[in-house]
Design a protein that fits this description.
Helix content: 25-40%
Largest sheet: 6 strands, mixed
Structural class: alpha/beta
Shape: globular
Number of strands: 10
CATH superfamily of the largest domain: P-loop containing nucleotide triphosphate hydrolases
Radius of gyration: 17 Å
Order of helices and strands: EEEHEEHEHHHHEHEHEEH
CATH topology of the largest domain: Rossmann fold
Strand order of the largest sheet: 6-7-8-3-9-10
Number of domains: 2
Strand content: 25-35%
């Protein structure tokens, strides 16, 4: 078992957002969390990332509990949230170096990993020299994704990573994510059925605080036609 999400419950005051969410991932793939706004997708991803504590239930990754061994758990996580987490006044390279320090990578490790990510995301040295504030939306998203991959995560969590991007930029990012999913687990929040069709292997539909449907993307899409 790679990832086990078991009976997750979360309340905000009296409002119950998650009411016993459970699913497992036992092999690398892209799993889409799908559902209308307000169904708890972002809350669930925050809990899986170890950033938000659930009221009940557990999350384990390779047997490591997100609450009992939070530090070791979070070392295995890569998270791309809805908002771009970069410093606009810094270049792409400087942003990456800053995150590399947070991950305690030495210069040799950083250089090696940056070269790998440049190839994966089709980034050039010129791209990395550009200040984030002057980048296109697609380039910002690429750099944002790169920072989340510096630590070679075992689980990548993506909360609408291609929001507001044009077709070509979205394709470049999702092609890279698909390649990553050959060796790691990916959980993707998206509202796009087209993205599910092209890239996702499995889908969990959240409704009323629980997993209403857990099936292959192919079977889900067949049922929506």
């Amino acid at each position: 078992m790679i990832l086990e999400v078991k009976d997750i419950k979360k309340k905000y005051g009296k409002k119950e957002v998650l009411n016993g969410v459970s699913f497992e991932m036992d092999s690398p793939c892209i799993l889409s969390l799908f559902g209308s706004n307000g169904t708890g997708k972002t809350t669930l991803v925050s809990i899986i990332a170890g950033l938000l504590k659930q009221n009940e239930g557990s999350v384990t990754l390779y047997g490591i509990d997100s609450v009992k061994n939070r530090k070791a758990f979070q070392k295995m996580i890569g998270l791309v949230s809805q908002e771009i987490a970069l410093y606009e006044e810094l270049s792409g390279k400087d942003n990456i170096s800053l995150f590399a320090k947070l991950y305690h990578l030495d210069k040799k490790q950083e250089t090696l990993r940056v070269n790998e990510l440049k190839e994966l995301l089709n980034l050039t040295d010129e791209d990395l020299k550009t200040k984030v504030g002057k980048m296109s939306g697609g380039m910002r998203r690429k750099i944002n994704l790169a920072t989340s991959l510096l630590n070679n995560p075992k689980l990548l969590l993506l909360d609408e990573p291609t929001a507001n991007l044009d077709y070509d930029s979205e394709k470049q990012i999702m092609d890279a994510v698909k390649k990553l999913s050959q060796s790691i687990c990916v959980i993707l929040i998206t509202h796009s059925l087209d993205t599910v069709k092209k890239y996702c292997d499995r889908i969990c539909v959240l409704s009323n605080g629980v997993v209403a449907k857990d099936t292959t993307a192919e079977e889900f899409l067949a049922g929506t036609l």
